[in-house]
Each structure stands twice: as structure tokens, then as C-alpha cells.
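Q: Joint fold for the lines below.
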Amino acid sequence: MIVELGHFALILAACLALLQSIVPLYGASKNHAGLMAVGQSAAVAQFVLIALAFAVLVNAYVTSDFSVVNVVENNHSAKPMLYKITGVWSNHEGSMLLWVLILSLFGAAVALAGDNLPPGLRARVLAIQGMIGVGFLTFILFTSNPFLRVSPAPLDGQGMNPVLQDPGLAFHPPFLYLGYVGFSVTFSFAVAALIEGRVDAAWARWVRPWALAAWCALTIGIAMGSWWAYYTLGWGGWWFWDPVENASFMPWLVGTALLHSAIVVEKRDALKSWTILLAIITFSLSLVGTFLVRSGVLTSVHAFAVDPARGAFILVLLVLAIGGSLTLYAVRAPSMAGGGIFAPISREGALVLNNVLLTTAAATVFLGTLYPLFLDVVNGPKVSVGFPFFNRTFVPLMIPVALAVAAGPLLAWKRGDLRAALQRLWFAFFATLAVVLIGLYLAGFKPVLAILGLGLATWVGFGSLCEWAERVKLFRIPFGESWRRAIHLPRASYGMTIAHIGFAVSIAGIAASAFETERIELVHPGETLQVAGFNLLFKGTEKVPGPNYIADRATIEVRQNGATIAVLHPERRFFTLQQMTTGVTAIRSNFMADLYVALGDPDDKGGATLRAYWKPLVPWIWIGAVFMALGGLLSLSDRRWRVGVAARRRVPAAHPAPGE
Amino acid sequence: MTRKRKRLYIVLGGLALLGVATALVLSAFQDNLVFFYSPSDITAKNVPDGRSIRVGGLVEKNSVKRESDGVTLDFRISDGSQTVPVSYRGDVPDLFREGQGVVAEGKLNKGTFIASTVLAKHDENYMPPEVVDALKRSGHWQETGPKP
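A: Joint structure:
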């Protein structure tokens, strides 16, 4: 009965979404306040209904209601409670429900927080959100319904893929979806602006917080996925250029470009139609990502089931959304001539460079991801594209981005002085030189590229600090005065500095992975394995029962200079239900380097294959991502975006110059 | 700086970058596409040593041996007609079994395939599509067997 309630709520939500996608649009064209207001109520009600449906599904999982097909296929009564709940989105149907839940959450947020929006724009934004909702709700109802019953109900479920039973992965999909789907708001704003034929600084000020919020969530989501791969898969890799990873990375790259170009629209009234295009492309890439992951054209942990109907349905949605928005763009964009003129060497110029490089990089990732699929479709040779391709296309494009990140913020708007900007970066320049020279001396010129990478990280990091020092006039005015300036700097400025430093930290972590060392050996109890100055004494394995698995747990004493500094317990867990084994690595991290141990196959004499890695700076990759997201959040908390402040500014902002 | 000049600069800059990106992609495609071969392909075509390729098929029955170092694994990948000897140092996936489908990535070295990664899927019934294709081409695909 409860389950049917959820199903019914979902159908009702789909009907409301249909209403929401038509009535406000008509209202806006007739300038009818009552009809436009329907959008708000419909968006909020749609969210409540989908939240109800989602709660019903969670309840079915928590109470192990095995009369529901979806619960039978993915749940088991012996599964720990955390994974019963996260199990809801560990499968295709449930994760699509989470997708629309987040979509409707953003719709409701626009409806509730958008009091300072012009009513016409809000109505149109909500209508576009409604259309996306209709597409995905019908997709769920017709091809991926999580509320289908089975009769007779089996006694117990089939459980969940053990690889997914992990706290890191449990929260990876919600964050990723917050990011993916969050860009639907910027997409809706872009399409609404195209319908209205008007983009101004106020528009950019409304759009940027949504783009920032989505970008922060996507950053965290991608970092979590990468971290999970690192500590679970057992060979210490953290990025595989796997199509599924690329699917989330492409919207991130273009979304990063969007964040930066929206600044130009807001401050300088330029790059308008480009920003609109970026907003459309970002969400389109999110949809492409959803298609790649959900349609089964790729085989991976993410492809739960291969059902051609689903792939075809998403493909149709994809064509409608992307085709429709780009057509509208082609018709309307030419009339949106930009305002501000700027020289190539200027802050706008630097942001354009950032945009062009990031989108080109996204395009190379796109090619590398889809080319094998394309060849497969035309019956060409079977190929795969891996590390070497991306190292030779993506990485060279990122180097100028990193070089420009330090100098860009020091350039003036409109017309900048590159030499003056570089002079202010003297400290970063010498720091970089020092790091490179010391690095080359210590490492004996071995991985030159990695040392140059560390130099690049130093340049970006210290460059960002120089920019901050410049703003507070550090050492040029009395310290107290600098302190006062530092306190009064806008949070958005700190957000930028922190995010750019995060970028530097990630670059350092990535570059330093060239210095890792690896040992794989068969060891027996009492034997040791040496890696990077650590002696790992293997003391044997023992059987340890878990809630739904039996683990072989190894005990390894880590010794350095004769003293025991840690005891590690890597495991191999055998899940009795699925007859599957998964590894659990043991990692000792001091935030500067990780000692990483994975337990491999046992032999018949009590021994086991051990894989041990020493990975310098590897945690910095994710610490950098956290910094980037924190920078974004800090920027988001800037008083500029606050609802009250924006409302007070509404009067001047609501009268943009007509006919621009 | 007139608007036209500005636009010209941007367009020229964009085109130059596009050119660089195209050159990068093309040169990377030239060398770095990893082609998939079945064991028959390897016997028939002259696949050069040292180039990254993927080989897929079934792990031949009674071919899996661990070398005395306890870490290196030797086995043969078969598509029913031909086999390729494979040497892999490291840990194989949990569903790596004799008679099961497998895809290995690595390089040929004097007739032996030195694998850097071995992929077998997490699902009992899963067969990598490349392997199905290779088996079909060699005429050893049984519809009753595991389906992709």
C-alpha cells in the first residue's frame, strides 16, 4: 500500500511537471501574474511529491520489503543499515529517482529563493525546469520504475554489489548528481534568457550562485569517486580516464569555464552569448554523461543493466534538450551583441583564455571518450583510449591554464599591463625556480616532467598568494593596515584565492605521483617486504566475520629505523551471498605521503601476495579538490549573492538598458 | 582597440588553439589508440612488439601457472582456434578463472604477451563484448554459453 502511494506520488509529480512546463511559459508571454505564479507552487509541490516517493522507496529498503522487485534485486536483510539506505541509489531505478529528486529540489529552490527575480524570468526558468522534469519522470515511469511489485515475494533479496558497499561510495552519487543536475538551473536560466532575448549583468548575478553551487558539489562528487577508486581497487590508481569518469569530468571542465565567463558578463557586460552557450553545453554534457552511464553503452560498475529501451529513451531526451536549446541559441544569440570592449591583455582576456583552453580540453576528453564508441557503431576496429592519449592531449592544454591562473587576477579589467602583473609575481617566480632547481638536484634529473609539474604547482600556489598580498598591500603599508584590509576583502576574493590554491595543491599531488615506489611480493608469516625505507613485517592472516562477509585480515607491522610505527590490517572480504571477494586496503597517511598496502591472493602455506606502495603527496590531490570546493562555497557566501542584499539592489538591477 | 579588431584577435586566437588541439589529438590518436586483437588476429597479423594492445578471449583450461616468485602468473588466452601466452605480474581480478572470459592490456614481447592489466568482470555471467566478438569470428561462440 505504502509502495503504491510512492508510485502514485511520482505519477502526480509527472503531471505537475507537465503543468509547470506549460502554464508559466504561457503566463510569461501574456504577462499574466497569476499564471506565472503557478510555476512556483507547481515546483514546490513537485518537490514534495518526489521527496515522498523517495521516502517511500527508502522505507521499502529499510524495512526490506521484498514484494518490490527493485528491493529484491538490490537489498538483503543482512546488509548493514547504512547500505540499506545507500542501496536505494546503488541501482539504476533508484539512482534515477534520486536524480529527479535533486532536479525538483533545485526547481523548488528557484521558486522559493527567487523572490528577487523578475517574475517573467522566474516563470520561464521554472517552465524549463518543468520540461526537464517531465522528460525524466516519464523516463522513470515508463522504463525504470522502482515501485514495481513481484508476487510471490521472495524470502530474501539478492543483495548489492559488494564493491559498492563502502562509505566513500555511498555519498558519491548524491554529490555527483547535485552537481550534474545543479547545472540544469543554469541551463534553464540560459534558455529562459534566450526566450526573453535579454542577458545583462543582473542575469549573470542570478546565474552565478547556481553555477557555483553545482560546481562545488560536482567537484566533491568527482573527488569522492576518485578517492574511492584509490582506496578500494587495490592498485593505488586514482584516475583511469575511464569513460564513466570522463562523463563527470567534461561537465566539470565546461562548468569551470562557465563560472569564469559569468564573471565577465556580470562585471563587464561582455561574453554574453558565449556564457549562454557554455551554460547549455555544461548541462548537455551532464545529460550525455547520464546517457553514457545509464544506457549501458559502456560496461562498468556504473552500468547496472543493459536495456535498449532505456538507452533509446535517454537518447531521445538528449536530442530534444540539446537540439532544442542549440536551435533556440542559433536563432536568438546573434541579437545579443556584447557590450564591454577589452584588449587581449586584460582580465577579460585572461578569462577568455581560461575559457577557450578549458573547453578545448573538454573537447579532447569528449573525443577520446566517444571515439571508440563511434568506431564500434560504424563496425570499425575495436579500440580503447587510455592514459597515453589523455596525457598527450589534455595535459598540454592544462599547462597554459595553470600558467595563466597566477597572472590573470593581477591584470586590470579592460586593458591590463602584463609586465606589471609579472613583476608583482616575482616572489612566485623565484619560489618556482627554487622548487625546480632543488627538485632536479635531489631527484637527479629523473622524472623531469614531474619536477616541472611541481614547479607549476608552486607557481600557481604562490602566484595566488602574491595576488592576495597585493590586495592587502602586504609589507608596503603598516601591518595593522594590511590586517584591516585583509578583513575587509570580499569573501568572493578569498574564495578565488583558496580555489586557485586548491588547484595548485592538486597539481602538486598529481605531479608527485611520478615519484611513487611499488613492491609486489609473495610473503609468508615472519617475512618482510621493503618499500621506500619501510619494513613491512607480515604476521599472517586470520579469519574475521563481518555482518555479511567473512574477511581474511592480515596483520602487518610497519617498521622504520627499527621502531614499529604502525600496524596495518588490509583485508580480503568474501561476501557469501554474492560469492565474491573484494579487497580492503590499509593506508597509513600523514598528509604528505601514503603508505598503501593491499592484500592479494593467498597461497597454500599461509602466505599471501602483498602489494605495497609509497605514494608521496597523493592525498594532496583530494585536499586540493576540497580546497576548490571550499573556495567555491566561500564565494557563494559572499554578501553579493545574499537574498536580502540582492533584493535591495533590485531597483537599479531590474531596469537594464533595453535594446542592448 | 575597435570591436572588430578585438573580435579578430579572439577568432584568430581561438583558431590557433583549435589547430594546436587538433594536432595534439591527431598525433595522440596515431600512437596511442589501443587496438583490440583476438589470439587469431595476433597469429595472422604481424602485430609489432612494444605497442600497447588489448587481447581478449577465454583463459585456456589448465594453462594458469604461478611462477616460483609467487607473484608472476602465466596463462594462455584462447579464442578456440589460436592461443597467446600471457605473463602477468600482479594480482588478478577475483573472477579470473580458467574457461572464463578475460581482456588483458599490455605489450607483445617475442611472442609472449606481457600484460600490465588484466580485466575480468565482477559479474559471473558477464562476458566482455570484445571477447564475444572474437569468439564469434573464430567460430567458437556457443549461444548456450554465457551471454554478454
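Q: Anything notable?
A: The two ends of chain A are 57 Å apart (CA to CA). The first helix of chain A runs from residue 2 to 30.
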